[in-house]
């Protein structure tokens, strides 16, 4: 007579008798179930249905609108990949933004990087943070960290006021139903692009390639219109429907501006500078502006851009001793590159085939 919690995404956290498995919702025709030992918390917040239960075999489990968000047993699989793929792809991430992330797991992983000076987090639902502090203490362990700047509000609205600020932005959102719907559209990714500094990197939960092919294709197409480099990685997370999770990792162009000389006076020098800069950077442009107090009344600038960071190769690697010291259970430096090697059906899903 034990109950099961069903991951059928019906919009409500259903507690079903073990002989009644509900089908339908976001992923019709299938359901994933966990046996419940005890319901620890169940209330409706302003935004969603929030449930925490103690499972028989996966520890405490957070469920939002009927969909499992994380379990104590397998959370490392998701948190470490979503956090460390962009963080290790960046050579020196100092300022990091997390959108969503109310359970605190991504925050915990980001703060393991010694280069990080500030983490800003914008989570819409304070109730998720409160229940995580109480029932998922290992995930929520860093909410008291002085490097954290926590905002309660909508991530989409928050981004409108933040431009050119972050080295890494991680979107740890729920699925595109309910409050997270706006976090899966092109306009959100345009805001993300504006919020990143030159050479910045983002990661976002990229749903399940077995189930969400159309969404993944749409996201891939618009991300490519916005970012220099768009990649998709996969990993296993047993308690997400179908057991496979995808991650979008995108990077900005790295731009550098050098002051140059006036074209009127130093044509040869400028031609020479353009020539050798082109040997280093694939894209080089010259711009000039009026400067009334400079000889000839103008000033020139060389703008060089490296097309992309190779996000599939870690810019910093961990030895196996460091992996242990960091307490990592899933991510390591070899897995970083391997995660971007995709099965054919995932490549096809991304291309819309
Ligand atoms: N790993 C999970 C998954 O993919 O199932 C998601 C983790 S959970 C921490 C996602 C969080 O995103 C929730 O706490 C939810 O409240 C938050 N969220 C949803 N929509 C949001 C929005 N528009 N702005 C900020 N946070 C949002």
From TrEMBL:
<dbReference type="InterPro" id="IPR030373">
    <property type="entry name" value="PABS_CS"/>
</dbReference>
<dbReference type="Pfam" id="PF17284">
    <property type="entry name" value="Spermine_synt_N"/>
</dbReference>
<protein>
    <recommendedName>
        <fullName>Spermidine synthase</fullName>
        <ecNumber>2.5.1.16</ecNumber>
    </recommendedName>
</protein>
<comment type="pathway">
    <text>Amine and polyamine biosynthesis; spermidine biosynthesis; spermidine from putrescine: step 1/1.</text>
</comment>
<dbReference type="GO" id="GO:0008295">
    <property type="term" value="P:spermidine biosynthetic process"/>
</dbReference>
<dbReference type="GO" id="GO:0004766">
    <property type="term" value="F:spermidine synthase activity"/>
</dbReference>
<comment type="similarity">
    <text>Belongs to the spermidine/spermine synthase family.</text>
</comment>
<keyword id="KW-0620">Polyamine biosynthesis</keyword>
<dbReference type="InterPro" id="IPR001045">
    <property type="entry name" value="Spermi_synthase"/>
</dbReference>
<dbReference type="InterPro" id="IPR030374">
    <property type="entry name" value="PABS"/>
</dbReference>
<dbReference type="GO" id="GO:0005829">
    <property type="term" value="C:cytosol"/>
</dbReference>
<comment type="function">
    <text>Catalyzes the production of spermidine from putrescine and decarboxylated S-adenosylmethionine (dcSAM). Has a strong preference for putrescine as substrate, and has very low activity towards 1,3-diaminopropane. Has extremely low activity towards spermidine.</text>
</comment>
<dbReference type="InterPro" id="IPR035246">
    <property type="entry name" value="Spermidine_synt_N"/>
</dbReference>
<dbReference type="InterPro" id="IPR030668">
    <property type="entry name" value="Spermi_synthase_euk"/>
</dbReference>
<dbReference type="InterPro" id="IPR037163">
    <property type="entry name" value="Spermidine_synt_N_sf"/>
</dbReference>
<dbReference type="InterPro" id="IPR029063">
    <property type="entry name" value="SAM-dependent_MTases_sf"/>
</dbReference>
<comment type="subunit">
    <text>Homodimer or homotetramer.</text>
</comment>
<feature type="domain" description="PABS">
    <location>
        <begin position="1"/>
        <end position="252"/>
    </location>
</feature>
<keyword id="KW-0808">Transferase</keyword>
<feature type="active site" description="Proton acceptor">
    <location>
        <position position="172"/>
    </location>
</feature>
<dbReference type="Pfam" id="PF01564">
    <property type="entry name" value="Spermine_synth"/>
</dbReference>
